[in-house]
Amino acid sequence: xxxxGSTGWLFQRAxxxxxxxxxxxxxxxxxxxxxxxxxxxDVARRFANPLWKTFxxxxxxxxxxxxxxxxxxxxxxxxxxxxxxxxxxxxxxAAALVLLCIGFMTVASFxxx
Amino acid sequence: MPSDPPGWRLRRPxxxxxxxxxxxxxxxxxxxxxxxxxxxxxxxxxLSMHIWVVHNLQKGREAYDALxxxxxxxxxxxxxxxxxxxxxxxxxxxxxxxxxDCGLGMRAHRATxxxxxxxxxALGIAGGVILVFCLA
Lengths: 113, 136
Description:
The complex is a heterodimer. Chain A is mainly alpha-helical. Chain A has four helices and no strands. Chain A has one domain (6-108): Fumarate reductase/succinate dehydrogenase, transmembrane subunit (3 helical TM bundles of succinate and fumarate reductases, Up-down Bundle), CATH 1.20.1300.10. Chain A has helices spanning 6-32, 40-47, 50-78, 82-108. The radius of gyration of chain A is 17 Å and the shape is elongated. By secondary structure, chain B is mainly alpha-helical. Helices cover 72% and strands 0% of the residues of chain B. Chain B is built from five helices and no strands. In chain B, α2 crosses α4 and α4 (74-101) runs antiparallel to α5. Chain B is elongated, with a radius of gyration of 23 Å. Chain A binds chain B through residues 13, 16-17, 19-20, 23-24, 27, 31-32, 35, 38-41, 43, 60, 63-64, 67, 70-71, 74, 95, 99, 102-103, 105-106, 109-110, 113, and chain B through 37, 40-41, 43-44, 47-48, 51-52, 54-55, 57-58, 60-61, 64-65, 68, 71-72, 80, 84, 87, 91, 94-95, 98, 101, 127, 130-131, 135.
């Protein structure tokens, strides 16, 4: 992050625009195109295509840091104490890294049974 | 450095005085911001649960499909409708904010807020009704 925060600001806008497109596809497909879309067989069929795996990993890599940055902004707005801020930063960063790892492993290590 | 005016005394501000008197301008801009925050927090909570749930793919076909069946029951459909509303609001208002950051629609910010709100309400209600009543 640079001193003025313009890198984070730009990242939040760019990732937000990307997520807007990805979430539209994801939500329409998973919630409106039939209940079988979220069952194991359909997930396996999609994950057989590396483009869908890429889609999900890009989605994950955009959404988790976007949420992390948003929560960090809220902490900066409402938490005054430097110690509490540091603790919050450690906690939300750890949570984001765990979510990134779980999500990445789910997609990357998937093999149909 | 200018001296304090005569009769000036420091007094303890009343609760929420700053918020009431000058800090916040209550209006479309503030509601846009507050709803953006609240929907953002809701989406972060949802995303965390979502990543955890999908992680159950590694437990195999039967376990995952049983879980998905549970998550398709009416109560979760209602939750999906609220999820749709949060996604719609955060996404559409986010596009509005990015447009204003690019200098577009600054003067029309009140009108565009109500457009976002209206589109979000219309699509949210229509999509929510479909989720809850038509996709059982």
